[in-house]
Design goal:
Elements: H1 2-12, H2 15-32, H3 45-50, H4 56-59, H5 69-87, H6 94-115, H7 121-135, E1 139-143, E2 147-150, H8 154-164, H9 170-188, H10 203-209, E3 232-236
Antiparallel strand pairs: 1-2, 1-3
């Protein structure tokens, strides 16, 4: 009975969020069990181009380090904001969501080459948080019960928290930059005088991923608690 309930809850997670978070957890589990090593996963342009180890273009986004506080912190925020984006502004637009993944991943890979980053999963999480925060500017956040701020400041708060933990902020800055580029091209520039839509999801992706029918049993996460787990609680202004 418990297994069926767990399976049902798992299958209720939207498909892109479910696929990405599952891949991240399984990759970390494989490293913990010493089935594979991080040396087989990290981003290395030379090995990709000369040895054709093209899987590194994907696997460097799936490994968040050994199981510990940093891993759990990243997984919770990845799951939470990826799911809220997919169930919110990307509801019924799975192809557009996958296209955002591809756009962000490609841009991070290009930038990562110049700043010598070997794992880009954390930057990708920050990108998702950034896009969500800019699309929900009126949500008031509470971080660890210590800080109160508006949602657009959340990526910067996370960067500060990362700095306090002794981590490099280059990864967080990369996520913020890529998130801003996507948000500007998708949400800002098309609405400017003389602007236009530069990001267009290919028709073949829409045919593959978009489904016209709504699931009557679909149960999206409430956005009244966007931070989740008492780490970044929030409520909409005026609510």
């Amino acid at each position: 009975m418990a297994y069926q309930t767990l399976q049902q809850e798992y299958l209720q997670i939207p498909v892109v969020t479910r696929a990405y978070t599952t891949a991240c957890v399984l990759t970390t589990a494989a490293v913990q069990l010493e089935i594979i090593t991080p040396f087989q996963l990290y981003f290395n342009p030379d090995l990709i181009l000369r040895n054709y180890q093209v899987w590194r273009l994907i696997t460097n986004f799936l490994f968040f380090g050994p199981v510990g506080f940093n891993f759990l912190f990243n997984m919770i925020f990845l799951y939470r904001y990826c799911r809220m984006l997919e169930e919110g502004s990307f509801r019924g637009r799975t192809a557009d969501f996958v296209f955002m993944f591809l756009f962000g991943g490609i841009l991070m890979t290009i930038f990562g080459t110049f700043v010598s980053l070997v794992f880009l999963g954390q930057a990708f999480t920050i990108m998702l948080v950034y896009v969500w925060s800019r699309r929900n500017p009126n949500v008031r956040m509470n971080f660890f019960g210590l800080l109160n701020f508006q949602a657009p400041f959340l990526p910067w708060v996370l960067m500060g928290f990362s700095l306090l933990l002794g981590n490099s902020i280059i990864v967080d800055l990369l996520g913020i930059v890529v998130g801003h580029v996507y948000f500007f091209l998708e949400d800002v520039f098309p609405n400017q005088p003389g602007g236009g839509r530069w990001l267009r999801t290919p028709s073949i992706m829409k045919m593959l991923f978009d489904t016209p029918e709504e699931d009557a049993n679909y149960n999206p996460l409430p956005e009244e608690r966007p931070g989740g787990f008492a780490w970044g609680e929030g409520q909409r202004l005026g609510g």
